[in-house]
Amino acid sequence: MPLTKNPTLVYVEHPGHTGHIIEGVHVKVEHRPIDLETEPVNGGVLLKTIAVSSDPYMRYRFRDANVAMFCPPILLNDPVDNFGVGKVVRSEDPNLKEGDLVFGYLAFSEYSVYPPKNPHFFNQPLRKIDPIPGTSLSVYLGPLGLIGTTVYPAWQAFLKDKVKDAKTMFVTSGAGGIGTFLTEYAKIVAPHIKIIASAGTDEKVEGMKKHGVDVAFNYKTEDAKEVLRKHGPIDIYWDNVGGPQLDAALLNFNTFGTIIACGCISSATEASSIKHFDEIFKRSLTVHGFIAFTGAVLPPMATFADDVVPLVVSGKISTQHEHRYAGVKEAVTALNAVHTGENKGKAVVVFSEDD
């Protein structure tokens, strides 16, 4: 059988403090030919990639391997990888067979062997998935993937009781995958909550309103502190960005409020200082920082499928809030877009028409 070209996005140089990924400098597309019939799988599987996710946290993975962090580094000359869905082409794994659809941590390439040559602690066993009628398989990268498995367990662990008496919640990066899922889920389980949310374009502001945000604003053209002063005070702040919007929230909290520290992408490439940290003790605020699948947010995962899948199937949680990019040729655009705000919805890099 002739070799398949197998275009692959490969990490070749650390981007430094800017974090901006430049094709041909920090990553490059290489053809890594593969024989689909004879490529050794070493007890694993040969996969055809259907789609992989581009997520803001990946910025932390483009670093020197000697720098310890919550997520594994990408090794130089290795394929870029992230959460993805694929189809089994050939298997030596007794739990998987040809044609099975799977979810796991996959390479940005058309085909790959799993587990990879240089596995890391995110390379857990592949999980078989089932198609949901009328929905693309990329739903497992969004509401039924990292998006849902970030929001739902944190809500159950930290906010389930808090929302009973809370009146107002503020969400940053409200037009992204996390913000959209959070808004829709909150309106289902706590419809009394007023949601204030920010985004970086007027188009995204309009989109947030369609997904249920009560007070949507463009943080680039409006003063977050003044918006919160007018429409607050707030009881819950779901923070995806840190920086000046966190400072604005701290000045507009009710006593005994709760902060969910889900991300701090504003400081991913440079240090950020918080001016009003003292408001945490002055207002008796509780801060919950977390990493998905660890600590307090792990036990609620036991009910994730039972609670969330029906919401997706019924359409109460949207599955079409995606920005789809075409394979390796648009992968770098997808990696940068989640930091510049150019994506309009969950960023998904699509490799195969099987999706």
Rg (CA only): 21 Å
Alpha plus pi helix count? 8
Distance between the termini: 26 Å
Helix/strand/pairing class, anyone? Answer: alpha/beta
Major β-sheet, in short? 7 strands, mixed
Report the helical percentage.
10-25%
Low-confidence stretches: none
Instruction: Find the count of extended strands (DSSP E, 2+ residues).
Output: 15
pLDDT average, as an integer?
Answer: 94
List SSEs in N-to-C order. EEEEEEEHEHEHEHEHEHEHEHE
Shape: globular
Beta-strand level of the residues, as a percent range? 15-25%
Any overview of this molecule?
This protein has 355 residues and is of the alpha/beta class. Helix content is 22%, strand content 24%. It is built from 8 helices and 15 strands. It has helices spanning 146-159, 177-189, 202-210, 224-231, 243-250, 279-282, 304-314, 331-340; strands at 7-11, 27-31, 45-53, 81-91, 101-107, 111-114, 127-128, 168-171, 194-199, 215-218, 234-239, 253-261, 286-289, 322-326, 346-350. Strands 3, 4, 5, 6, 7, 14 and 15 form a 7-stranded mixed beta sheet that branches. Helix 6 (279-282) links the parallel strand 12 and strand 13. The longest helix is centred in the middle third of the chain and has 14 residues, at 146-159. The radius of gyration is 21 Å and the shape is globular. It starts with 6 loop residues before the first strand and ends in a 5-residue tail after the last strand.
